[in-house]
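2.7 Reproducibility. Because tokenized structures are sensitive to small changes in the input, we list the exact sequence used for ATP-dependent RNA helicase homolog DQX1, including any N-terminal residues retained from the expression construct. No trimming or masking was applied before prediction.
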Amino acid sequence: MASEPLRLAEEYGPSAGESELAVNPFDGLPFSSRYYELLEQRHALPIWAARFAFLEQLESNPTGVVLVSGEPGSGKSTQIPQWCAEFVLARGFQKGQVTVTQPYPLAARSLALRVADEMDLTLGHEVGYSIPQEDCTGPNTLLRFCWDRLLLQEVASTRGTGVWGVLVLDEAQERSVASDSLQGLLQDARLENLPGDLRVVVVTDPALEPKLRAFWGNPPIVHIPREAGERPSPIYRDTIPPDRVEAACQAVLELCRKEAPGDVLVYLPSEEEISLCCESLSREVESLPLQRLPPRVLPLHPDCGQAVQAVYEDMDARKVVVTHWLADFSFSLPSIQHVIDSGLELRSVYNPRIRAEFQVLRPISKCQAEARRLRARGFPPGSCLCLYPKSFLELEAPPLPQPRVCEENLCSLVLLLKRRQIAEPGECHFLDQPAPEALMQALEDLDYLAALDDDGDLSDLGVILSEFPLAPELAKALLASCEFDCVDEMLTLAAMLTAAPGFTRPPLSAEEAALRRALEHTDGDHSSLIQVYEAFIQSGADEAWCQARGLNWAALCQAHKLRGELLELMQRIELPLSLPAFGSEQNRRDLQKALVSGYFLKVARDTDGTGNYLLLTHKHVAQLSSYCCYRSRRAPARPPPWVLYHNFTISKDNCLSIVSEIEPQMLVELAPPYFLSNLPPSESRDLLNQLREGMADSSAGSESSSVQEFRDPCVLQ
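Resulting structure tokens (single pass, no recycling of outputs):
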């Protein structure tokens, strides 16, 4: 039973002394010398002791589900996929490829690079990865690393899933929406197009093991032995520092002054604080009286793109990696010997009752705190400085990370579940069931967008919406642009809103501020985004051009790729296109109509002429973001009375981001009548109802006049 894959597995890893000409069974070429160097490192990983137990369970387990439980840094994410590839190879490639999901695109790319190196294969051939706007796979790809949300989208769309031999759901303890949803669909056997003998491997931290064991019906579990290195004893502060960034910087500088060996990993709550910390440290370390090269400060967060690979490069200088929750479980860095932990994370939590996101600063879980501490284990152990009292986590921290399915807008998920013909999303199994009001709000919003029919199933429009890798309201606006002849502009806007939503920091100089103002459009932030994109393309996608204006070059490149994908998708499903007409008066109105068709749920009215906006769907008051083009106009410019916005975030200043002026008549004309009727009582609703009645009377009068003209031929003369 298990003998064949086990025997093959042994043949894949001969030592250099046994055979310098041993052949790689995946591509038929001799192994390189680097393969043997990396093989020695792999043998030293804690997971290697569980190798044969895992392969035996994968081969012989009748349920097809195997749980793998081990601590961060044990080698789970790099070795399990390779062993699954060996398993598929032993079957003669008859049962398809190995797909490995990751909760973050950066992790999928980084792991594919590392695993291809360890397997002595070419990235993009036998080993590849699929992340947004980047598909590095080929027809011969056997092992694919994939962002879990992209895989969920593939599962639901007509593009299908290909043929899977083994599906590895890695980092299950991260509790991403897509990972939890895929487990629910697989557990319910809802994926009818998958092969009957599909093997599912769920890889997790030990803290989530009991919950997963109960969810999957007590499947076999492969336990990874603990790493032999000693664990550092955390050093706690007596109080929480008032300035986390300053406290973290001082702790790093103290380690540098002592010239303690090893790299440093700093955990802060948000990307903004990561940037501030990196800027401060980069200035300070240059002036330190050190015997060796000054440390190199490296940020690690989702916007880093391919630059994240720098954290893995061998350097003569010490590395100081500044990150947040992204590196709690992903991105194992063996060179780390010192950890500085703020104990906090900044997360966006969606409130379905008011259709808004909250920026929540909260304690990390006990599971995350332990994972961070283990980054510094070794012989001898490193150090772990906690910028908080010991009682802080004991009293306030939950045992496990919060499931994201209970904290995100579920519209996109419900749309995909409906595509899989799951009539009642509430009946789908989840590790933790979403709140009923979150599911109801998602269904209500999809109904407003005409994505559901009278029976609650997907309408024809809903099927098309589910094809797009966009939020449902943005996909609806893109489809509406086909009717209003502004597809070219809306394609640009959809890509920019998804990948590169404008300026994210204040200008650093008067010159930069002037360059930014030149990109602003009088019609609002949406037109400004189109103008930014066109100027970026005209610059030849120049990185220096972006830096001079405070724009994210990598994000704009992603927007360019996404626009191409969206255009290709529209052509594939034979949707009508239109020629560019940006800047004309007719195009301005057409673009507004397309936006209102998708974003009528996100409209606000200035109630007093001073920029205090009351949101239509609930009675929250918000202000325009400091990056809004209307805010940068010279006084006494009056804020627009009615606006459409892309996001509303409840934080210290309750901001509407990416805002454009609209006419209320357009809202009455294009929003569903029952949506206007269901708005909460307010002066804004009364004004809209008056407009609707006036437009109805005008329409009735126009029809009556037309009938009279038809009946009286003398009038026509």
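The longest helix spans residues 683-711.
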